[in-house]
Amino acid sequence: MPSNSLPADEPLLPLLARAVRRWVGFCVNQALALLDLHVGSNTVVRFLAVLLVYATDLTAVFYLAYEMRWDFATPPEMEQQRASLIVAVVVCKLILLHSFGQFRSILSYFGLADFGGVVLSMSVASGMMLGLWYASDVAAAPSRGVILMDFVLSVALLSAFRLTLRVVRTRNNSGRMRPAGRERRVAIIGAGDAGEAVAKDLLQRQDSGLLPVFFLDDDVRKIGWSIHGLPVHGPLEKLLKLAPRARVNELIITLSDVTPRRVKEIVELGRQVGATTQIVPSFTQLASGEVKVERSRPVAIEDLLGRVPVKLDSEGITRLLRDRLVLVTGAGGSIGSELCRQILSHHPRRLIMVEQAEIALFEIEQELVAAGQGALLRPMIVDVTDEAAIRAVFAAQRPEVVFHAAAHKHVPLMERQPGEALKNNTLATAGLAQLASEHRVERFVFISTDKAINPTSVMGCSKRLAEKAIQAMQRAPGNTTAFLAVRFGNVLGSSGSVIPTFRRQIAAGGPVTVTHQDMTRYFMTIPEAVGLVLQTATIGQGGEIFILDMGQPVKIYDMARQMIELSGYRPDVDIEIKVTGLRPGEKLFEELRHTDETHEATEHPQIYRLRNEAAGAAGAWLEELRAVTGESPAVIKQVMLKQVPEYTPFAG
Hints:
By secondary structure, the protein is an alpha/beta fold.
């Protein structure tokens, strides 16, 4: 049971004031419960209460309209007229309010739709009185001045009453629910539509514990004005002066066109003033009212590393995929699953999803079924290294476009099992290419990697061999399939990548392990990479290798520090960053093309075409690779080196 003794550090007067506020709040809640049916009060009782309130308001308004028309000296004949009409007018207005849904509307939830109902119902009532004035003797109808004043006062009083209920409900509930002493003061970064929606939501929902105090924006046209009573300051760099004065401890980014560099700058400003940073995930949805501020999330490393969304030729992609039979291998992986999502948006006739991992295939299938795409799907558990099984898939499904994303991609694992890398990445790709050519598939797109360039790993070399295999198939006699390869770097958040690994290490308290302080990598978002892959399929003629514009390389060590800071910790103070040394097959940096490849622009500014010397027939060297898949790693690497002279095998 609570103690009756007063806390030693809390005076009596604030306690009494709090008790009075709670009692007033209780009384207001009971009134709202009666009028708004908040606590399950009887419908008849609630209807009668609303009827009484509306009738009282409308009676007072009609009476006051006469007084104002005659300067509060109403002639006796007008008083008699008022007395004879007041009941009929009020009853008519009540019927009209009911007809326009105002008795079914919860009174303290007052919006534009309800305001429109009030205006329309009162307009009809005033129109009826005006018609009576034209059609009858003046003594039988109110004067035009009375009719006008009655209309204005009716709309004003009913709206003010309901708006007051809304304000009281919001403030009373917010004050009652807000955690004492836990209020976080918020600066909203961006004074546009999204920022306005955030401010409005926070001001109405003060129980969230977030109190907006001002806006920050770089737009000089907005600086100095206010939105919902909150001043707009700027530029953003003024946060360093404003935040300590306003005791800001939370930033919410609502800028609709914010770049990763700007997000990074805002996060750094927040760090300097001791404020955490949130970001609204979908600016379009927030500005349209579909998303509220409670769906904001902390700024993640992806926000700092992501790029401006690419512009795709969606019509060209749709022409390629609409009403086509499309096959995706590795459909349950990071790239494969996103390929499935985006391909379905272009209306294929059927999507054949090939995957060897049962759970991964089940998860993407369920996601797409939930999105209403189940009728288009053909999920199939098939290992691409199983030649007979994959041949049966081609024979039964007859795909017209193939995206080959199935692969073993983890560098250190493949160093220990190079035979598996050869079977899955090289030989299976060559087999799929052969089947695609035999079945006259229109286009075959192979997902390669930047690690195939001057490879130092088995994984990268196996991908380079796969590129050579499909280039050789392109030039095979009688082939009609266009074979394309697409290279890109790391994708943000893909399975086994560095970002999920760092997150797990931070959650465990560290250390965060980095193999080398100078290691750099290129990063893309998964949707961006896949969108460009689809775009590549529309512009390739066959035999080309395409690379995607991957922006600037990022230091992995710097990324580790940023992720620790975004998690609220201090690098090497709260969480250690440990340099462990390069792992087998790893490079310090990735390259974009071989020295013997020419670099050409394409129709898309973020896709480049690479051309090199024509590859010879693939049969002999593929058989040599197939013959050594069961040999020791050293033997396999030597055979791979024979076919890829630029390969630098790890000798450990």
